[in-house]
Amino acid sequence: MTARLLNRRQLLATGAVVLVGNTLARARNGTVHVTIETLAFLPAEIEVKAGETIEWTNKDRFAHTATVEGGWEVLIPPGKVATRIATATDTVEYYCRFHPNMKGRIKVSA
Ligand SMILES: [Cu+2]
């Protein structure tokens, strides 16, 4: 979580931040990208602002979902991309309905 405290220049200098699977990823051009590969959301934790787009790219050969218990669900077919526009209440944990061990987290910042 320390990544948030770094300024943009420091983030660029430590470019590995976005590449290492489980660290915070920020939106670029209004979209934050999550790759699904070998049964994992990468990065597992993302930070968005309300109105920004979350885009999941499924590189696996089977379908996955981004599912929030008692909330919304996005189906991501194999080899496809699916999106959701983040809302103010989207600070949530989510998982894949087909593979409950796949877990992710969304944080909505002001
Ligand atoms: Cu899955």
Structural key phrases:
disordered N terminus; mainly beta; 4-stranded mixed sheet; binds copper (II) ion; Immunoglobulin-like; 110 residues; 2 helices
Verbal overview:
By secondary structure, this protein is mostly beta strands. 9% of the residues lie in helices and 41% in strands. It has helices at residues 8-13, 16-19, and strands spanning 25-26, 31-36, 41-42, 45-49, 53-58, 64-67, 73-76, 81-85, 92-95, 103-109. It has a 4-stranded mixed β-sheet with strand order 1-4-10-9, with no helix packed on it. A 4-stranded mixed β-sheet has the order 3-2-5-8, with no helix packed on it. Strand 6 (64-67) and strand 7 form a beta hairpin. The longest helix has 6 residues, at 8-13. Mean pLDDT is 84; it is low at 1-22. It binds copper (II) ion. Copper (II) ion (CU) binds next to loops.
